[in-house]
Design a protein that fits this description.
Blueprint lengths: L9 E4 L1 H5 L8 H12 L3 E4 L5 H11 L5 E3 L4 E3 L5 E4 L4 H13 L3 E5 L4 E3 L16 E3 L11 E6 L2 H10 L1 H6 L1 E7 L6 E7 L4 H12 L6 E5 L13 E4 L5 H6 L2 E2 L8 H15 L1
Parallel strand pairs: 1-2, 1-12, 7-8, 12-13, 13-14
Antiparallel strand pairs: 3-4, 4-5, 6-7, 6-9, 9-11, 10-11
């Protein structure tokens, strides 16, 4: 099925476990080919759960000038600072989240497009996020607005269940909630975002913004949050270290892992097919 690669004009790449190795580095082949493909009007971009701050460093290193997806879809923004989409959570909901966390032994933090906000009573939460956003310490959350993601940490399962259930009405209307357990099962983390602020919807927005079609798009991923992207109808690529569920949905599985520059393998294939087109 690699013959479909001749039509590709946009390559959407997950970061952790896909693009970067265990040390957080982008492979040399990827860096070289991303810039060569851009000269041929074939563009790479990013789609990650990480913050804009973290993703921007990688975008700059790869020479990505078009917008990229961050915060798992809550923000689409380019290095020029222009935002294509912001999934801003209503202030009334932010206030409810703060009250619920405080009343149920939860710790809370939240971020806008620039910072991760922490207060003295909630600073522990920054240890359990992978956003890699600049930390802004504040006395309290008064006056905070334009929030794109809320994170609530609980050690107690019953407290987390109560907090999540208290949001059930809002979940039907305006937000998405997801609870994850730590690898050691010693805490729960509730992530709250505006509804439709996910990778799939935001990649759809980005593709439309750039004027491409599904047939011209390839997506590369490794993890559970990449699963919805594989329902978009693009050319689906799973790296060798991807979860089995993603591999089963892939049109192509790389022979190399993220630690072996799997994205470089893909870009080389795209370049080869483009030259033969």
């Amino acid at each position: 099925m690699t013959n479909r690669l001749k039509d590709i004009k946009l390559i959407v790449i997950d970061i952790d476990g896909t693009l970067v190795d265990q040390q957080g580095n982008v492979g040399d082949k990827t860096l070289k080919l991303a810039k060569e493909l851009k000269d041929q009007k074939i563009f790479c971009t990013l789609s990650s759960a990480r913050s804009f701050h973290y993703s921007a460093h990688i975008a700059e290193e790869m020479g990505i000038e078009i917008p990229f997806v961050t915060l798992d879809g809550a923000l689409i923004k380019g290095l020029n600072g222009e935002a294509v989409f912001k999934g801003v959570i209503k202030d009334s909901f932010v206030h409810k989240a703060i009250a619920l966390a405080e009343d149920n032994y939860g710790k809370i933090t939240m971020c806008d497009e620039h910072n991760l906000f922490v207060t003295p009573n909630n600073s522990i939460v920054k240890e359990y996020t992978k956003l890699s956003a600049p930390i802004k310490e504040i006395n309290d959350f008064t006056g905070i607005s334009d929030i794109l993601e809320i994170l609530i940490y609980c050690e107690d399962k019953a407290s987390m269940k109560h907090i999540k259930n208290s949001f059930s009405f809002f979940e039907r209307l305006d937000v998405n909630l997801s609870v994850t357990k730590s690898p050691r099962n010693d805490y729960y983390l509730l992530t709250i975002k505006k509804k439709h602020s996910n990778k799939l919807e935001s990649v759809k927005r980005l593709v439309k913004h750039l004027g491409f079609t599904k047939k011209q798009v390839a997506v590369i991923g490794d993890w559970h949050n990449d699963m919805p992207l594989f329902d978009f109808g693009a050319y689906n690529i799973a790296v060798q270290n991807a979860i089995p569920e993603l591999k089963r949905k892939a049109d192509y599985v790389t022979s190399s892992t993220n630690n072996e520059d799997a994205v470089g393998e893909v870009l080389e294939l795209v370049k080869t097919h483009a030259q033969h087109n």
